[in-house]
Amino acid sequence: MVGRTLATRLVALGHRVTMGSRRAGNEAAAAWAAGAGEAAAEGSFADAAARGDLVVNATAGTASVAALVSAGADNLAGKVVVDVANPLDVSAGLPPTLSVCNTDSLGEQIQRRFPSARVVKTLNTVNCEVMVDPSLVPGSHTMFVAGNDAPAKADVRALLESFGWPADDIVDLGDIAGARGMEMYLPLWLRFWQATGTGHLNVKLARRA
Amino acid sequence: MVGRTLATRLVALGHRVTMGSRRAGNEAAAAWAAGAGEAAAEGSFADAAARGDLVVNATAGTASVAALVSAGADNLAGKVVVDVANPLDVSAGLPPTLSVCNTDSLGEQIQRRFPSARVVKTLNTVNCEVMVDPSLVPGSHTMFVAGNDAPAKADVRALLESFGWPADDIVDLGDIAGARGMEMYLPLWLRFWQATGTGHLNVKLARRA
């Protein structure tokens, strides 16, 4: 769902998108590609990573490293890898726990496993509808980016702005270890969701000027 | 520092406060009590808990359960215990990690250890200056409460309002398991602090009306 929402928005913005799956010909991916116009295609994770100038990891967090291994380190080398996943583990029921946290994060795991990739963690702190249309949440509210590569973060900022995130609402949390805080925020997000009854929510960073 | 800041504000608001320490006669506590007027006193954790109608846990999170054991379960029974602590572990250096998280929280540990106490987690998501004076952060921003006992949460809401938190900015995250999200937010808070250079910061919950 996250991948489809992002891919649809990217196509609408004029990008060419290949939706990757474990195997080329995945039914849901093929259905999406068939309905999304000429700029949309589908293929294996490796096909998608090889074709893309920029790679989005929108897989389940607990499967993300395996999916990226399947995509191929050579296909990720030098590229911006936008990691929007959360390592939510529902194997023991609800509420989900995190399969990695506290001393590490999924964003860091991906960066370590693929040192030539330029990993930027972002968007994982909102639901996919808000990711691509921040106006669904009234007022100004904050999106975070974290990563080791400043030009990669600048590219991702530009992408976020094209989704509708105002430049002033995008906060740089520093290196990829900032992913730890962004992922550990999820349990609070889940409680917000329960308390408010809407997934169209976010937080705004308020601070002394 | 957190305890002194809260205690000073509580005295200013007309409450009588006993600052508890591991042993009665703690130098810093005695100095505070001597300077804080007739409504201020100091004593052991047990003295403080026995005297108080309401107990505030403002100890280091990694020492909180031990401090409350020292305070005495009988002295906590039936009372509102406001837990503002964070289980930050700096024993392996910075950034701190959490000594408990993901599948449990300090708030839950305290509630389980003292089942007759009416534990309310709150205030741990801001620094102590903001706790007692939310106007230090411009605009509206959000404070959370979590706990199993609704009347206890109502008492804590009233206390928060007396500190200056507008009623509309206090969000109930449900039972004490909500402490998990509130404590796991700390790594994000620490990154905010690094990114903004001020501890006078908080988040505002923004959502579809």
How is this structure best described in words?
- Two copies of one chain form a homodimer.
- With 209 residues, the first copy, chain A, is of the alpha/beta class.
- Chain A has one domain (2-195): Rossmann fold.
- Helices cover 40% and strands 20% of the residues of chain A.
- Chain A has ten helices and ten strands.
- The first copy, chain A, has a five-stranded mixed beta sheet, with helices on both faces. In chain A, strands 1-2 form a two-stranded parallel sheet. In chain A, strands 5-6 form a two-stranded antiparallel sheet.
- In chain A, a hairpin with a 7-residue loop joins β5 and β6 (97-98).
- In chain A, α3 packs across α4.
- Chain A is globular, with a radius of gyration of 16 Å.
- The termini of chain A are far apart.
- Chains A and B meet through β6, α9, α10 and β10 of A and β6, α9, α10 and β10 of B.
- β10 (201-207) of chain A pairs antiparallel with β10 (201-207) of chain B, so a sheet runs across the interface.
Largest inter-chain contact set: A-B, 46 and 45 residues
Q: Which whole number gives the mean pLDDT of chain A?
A: 97
Strand segment tally of chain A: 10
- Continuous helix count of chain A: 10
> What is the CATH domain class of chain A?
Alpha Beta
Radius of gyration of chain A: 16 Å
Task: Give the helix/strand layout.
The structure is a homodimer of 209-residue chains.
Chain A: H1 2-12, E1 17-21, H2 27-35, E2 40-44, H3 45-51, E3 54-57, H4 64-71, H5 73-76, E4 80-83, E5 88-89, E6 97-98, H6 106-113, E7 118-122, H7 128-132, E8 143-147, H8 150-163, E9 170-172, H9 178-184, H10 186-196, E10 201-207
Parallel strand pairs in A: 1-2, 3-4, 4-7, 8-9
Antiparallel strand pairs in A: 5-6, 7-8
Helix pairs in contact in A: 3-4
